[in-house]
Design goal:
AceGlu_kinase-like_sf, ATP-binding, eight-stranded mixed β-sheet, VC0802-like, six-stranded antiparallel β-sheet, lysine biosynthesis, single chain, 20 strands, aspartate kinase activity, 393 residues, EC 2.7.2.4
Length: 393
């Protein structure tokens, strides 16, 4: 790239940011301002609003007894194609040259399972050509092509993956992801009013935060940003307030950085037999990730996500019937540098949960994460109590 060539910025706008024609025009205006500031812009866009959910509902309506995943991916990809074309039109209406590009036109290749494919390569030649011609490249997120040319989708939040991969392919200075949240917070601000914004976070901690249930960024997106060394700026689509930076080698202060939660966990107890070991092997083979498991002389207990198809398939494959199943569990996770090396934090969290009459059913730790599973219908109250104890001091 010539030394005097303007730098490249990759921006990504989620579905809530482009949900209506008015919001599309606002996004176009923001992109125009980036261009006026001297950036060459590649914009990755999700489907508008609830388009993906509505398309899935349509698929269920016409195919109520099971869906072919290839055809579902073909259907879902139309949501992003609609968005990129409309945003390109909105940019042109504001005097900005723009070209919409699908996954096939961008050279995004993937492999794996339909609905959760993994990006394997990103040629991006057509994106570079569009930028070199002085136009904004508007790229469809969430989708890629397999080796046969079939459309594959990247899973929920897959447009974030597209943006990170594109930023790496273009050697962009930054990948800016705009959402309705506007940054990383110490807890979900919609539930915990005292939650505060985190100006910067090391990508390793952000990976833990995403895996623990924070829906601001897809976990695979953060892992990809770490692997490709792409700095990520997370900000609001709807105002100009400062966002949060996610990058390598941030000097994290010691202590707890954030609280995350995730609903929809379950606990299954099995008699310990040879078949139960086959269950764990099957889950490994399918890439499923139970939260944890425990073994006694007579029992195997597994904690897993409700509705996990890999778990259901493994049960059927080995004809296993659990002795007991408890559904509706919630995980609460404290994220912090080296938190797993501080047993006093685990003791304090356990005592707080006991005081709140929600003793943990399981507690797990890693280097930067402490997670408890609880059975509660008072999740909002519990999150606020944990946040006050550990993140407001």
């Amino acid at each position: 790239m010539p030394a005097d060539c303007p730098p490249v910025m990759v921006v990504k706008f989620g579905g809530s940011s482009v949900a209506t024609p008015t919001l599309l025009a606002r996004v176009a205006s923001r992109i125009r301002s980036f261009c006026q500031d001297g950036w060459r812009v590649a914009a990755v866009v999700s489907a508008m609003g609830r388009t993906t959910d509505k398309l899935l509902e349509l698929a269920d309506t016409v195919s109520p007894h099971g869906r072919d995943e290839r055809e579902v991916d073909q259907l879902l990809a139309t949501g992003e194609i609609q968005s990129v074309a409309l945003l390109a039109l909105a940019l042109r209406a504001q005097g900005v040259m723009a070209r919409s590009l699908t996954a096939g036109q961008c050279g995004i290749c993937a492999a794996g399972r339909h609905g959760r494919a993994l990006i394997t390569s990103f040629d991006a030649q057509s994106v570079r050509q569009t930028l070199d011609e002085g136009a904004v490249a508007v790229v469809a997120g969430f989708q890629a092509l397999d080796s046969r040319g079939d459309v594959m989708t990247l899973g929920r939040g897959g447009s974030d993956l597209t943006a990170i991969a594109l930023a790496a392919a273009l050697d962009a200075r930054v990948c800016s992801i705009y959402t309705d949240v506007g940054g990383l917070y110490s807890a979900d601000p919609k539930i915990v009013p005292d939650a505060h914004k985190i100006p910067q976070m090391d990508v390793s901690l952000c990976c833990e935060l995403s895996h623990a249930g924070s829906r601001v960024l897809q976990a695979r997106c953060v892992e990809l940003a770490a692997r490709l060394n792409v700095p990520v700026y997370l900000a609001s689509s709807f105002d100009e307030t400062e966002g949060s930076w996610i990058m390598k080698d941030v000097n994290e202060r010691s202590g707890i950085a954030a609280l995350a939660h995730e609903t929809g966990w379950a606990e299954a107890v099995f008699s310990r037999t040879e078949k139960t070991w086959n269950l764990l092997s099957s889950l490994d083979d399918q890439g499923a990730s139970p939260l944890d498991f425990a073994v006694t002389e007579t029992r195997l207990t597994v904690w897993f996500k409700q509705g996990d198809k890999a778990v259901d398939d493994a049960w059927r494959r080995w004809n296993l019937t659990p002795l007991a199943v408890t559904r509706g569990l919630v995980s609460l996770s404290l994220i912090g540098s080296g938190i797993g090396n501080h047993p006093e934090t685990a003791r304090a969290l356990t005592q707080l949960l006991i005081d709140q009459k929600t003793p943990p059913r399981r507690l797990t730790t890693s280097g930067n994460r402490l997670t408890c599973l609880v059975a509660t219908d008072r999740i909002d109250e519990l999150l606020n109590a944990v946040h006050r104890r550990f993140l407001c001091e």
